[in-house]
Automatic annotation (TrEMBL):
Pfam families: Pyr_redox_2 (PF07992). It comes from Domibacillus aminovorans. Residues 11-157 form the FAD/NAD(P)-binding domain. Homodimer. Keywords: Flavoprotein, Membrane, Oxidoreductase, Transmembrane, Transmembrane helix. It comes from the Bacteria. GO terms for molecular function: oxidoreductase activity. The chain crosses the membrane at residues 7-28. Its cofactor is FAD. This is Pyridine nucleotide-disulfide oxidoreductase.
């Protein structure tokens, strides 16, 4: 008689090994769960040399934060971290079947997506060189380092003025660049004048810099404007993984996955945490969400184990 092949069912597969995914892995590992983290090593913050605002880790290099997390997780032999890319996830008979680019297949009771977002900045010469060095999106992450400097604020539409008010907290020497005709009201233009903030509408054709330090912004009208740094209102972020959407998880108008309080979704057993859920969570926020979902999932697995013995 042909022997039936034993399938190893993992407790949890974690898609994405950023702070959200690794934090979930730590809680679940400490809860004796068999966990595999699958990560292809392309987080959105790798362009930056230092991360700020994570208590005890202020100023740390993103790769160093990851290295410490990996080192600490090696203690938990029930947690495996695999460098790979998840191509497909199916849900069949109450389990999740995950297939990776290298051809591996994993079966799990639960799956957590901490796959994050990807930024899509406009294709302007020299922008990639300065983004993450002196030009950023998040003032809580990088505003202090740029305090009181001559800064640019890039953006347009109704989000521009609220963002300028925020950046004004770190520097009052601001110039607003709408990179095309300004789509703001007369009253908003008046407020900018009252705060001595020039508004430049000419399209940007180049960012000139030395070793990532912004020097001049070159405009289509021929002007060159000196600025030492800047902040973008939006980086047009989009989901790094559309797999949850393909499984039926809805996206909201900001392109974030819609979830319940802890990250549970309308697909039972599938949770989403970190930037994929809140578009710009921060490192500590993503880690906190990973912790919460880890606790939630362990609670569910404990209930399920208990109920199995009652049958
Ligand atoms: C320029 C910049 C600077 C920042 N600075 C700071 C800062 O100073 N302080 C701060 O708190 N926050 C900062 N942030 C924000 C912070 O990086 C994010 O909020 C945080 O990384 C979100 O964590 P996450 O785990 O949700 O996603 P991520 O850290 O983006 O991790 C997601 C992981 O999932 C992997 N992945 C995606 N799809 C797949 C797939 N299909 N298969 C396998 N793996 C996959 C990716 O490769 C990645 O490793 C910054 C962001 C940027 C862009």
């Amino acid at each position: 008689m042909k022997k039936k092949r034993e399938i190893n069912i993992l407790d949890v597969v974690i898609a994405g090994g950023g702070p959200a995914g690794l934090s979930a892995a730590l809680v679940l590992g400490r809860s004796l769960k068999n966990v595999t983290v699958i990560d292809d090593g392309r987080p959105r913050n790798f362009v930056t040399a230092a991360s700020h605002g994570f208590l005890t880790r202020d100023g740390i290099k993103p790769s160093e934060l990851r290295k410490i997390a990996h080192e600490q997780l090696t203690k938990y032999q029930n947690v495996k971290i695999t460098e790979d890319f998840i191509e497909k996830v199916e849900k069949k008979n109450n389990v999740f079947i995950t297939t990776t680019k290298s051809g591996k297949t994993m079966v799990s009771k639960k799956i957590v997506f901490g796959t994050g977002m990807k930024d899509h900045l406009p294709a302007i010469d020299g922008l990639q060189e300065v983004y993450g060095k002196t030009v950023f999106h998040c003032p809580y992450c990088d505003g202090w380092e740029r305090r009181n400097e001559p800064l640019a604020v890039f953006g347009n539409g109704k989000g521009l003025l609220p963002f300028i008010k925020l950046i004004y907290n770190w520097s009052e020497d601001l110039i607003a660049f709408t990179n095309g005709t300004a789509d703001i009201t007369k009253e908003e233009k008046q407020e900018l004048i009252q705060h001595n903030i020039p508004l430049i509408e000419s399209p940007i054709i180049e960012f000139q810099s030395t070793k990532g330090n912004l020097d001049r912004i070159i405009l289509q009208n021929g002007d060159a404007v000196r600025r030492k740094g800047g902040f973008w209102v939006t980086t047009n972020e989009q989901q790094a993984s559309m797999i949850p959407a393909l499984l039926g998880v809805p996206l909201n108008e900001n392109g974030e996955y819609e979830t319940g309080d802890h990250g549970q979704t309308n697909i039972k057993g599938l949770s989403i945490v970190g930037d994929a859920k809140n578009s710009f969570t921060s490192l500590i926020g993503a880690a906190e969400q990973g912790y919460e979902i880890g606790v939630k999932i362990n609670g569910e697995l404990a209930e399920e184990k208990w109920a199995d013995k009652l049958l």
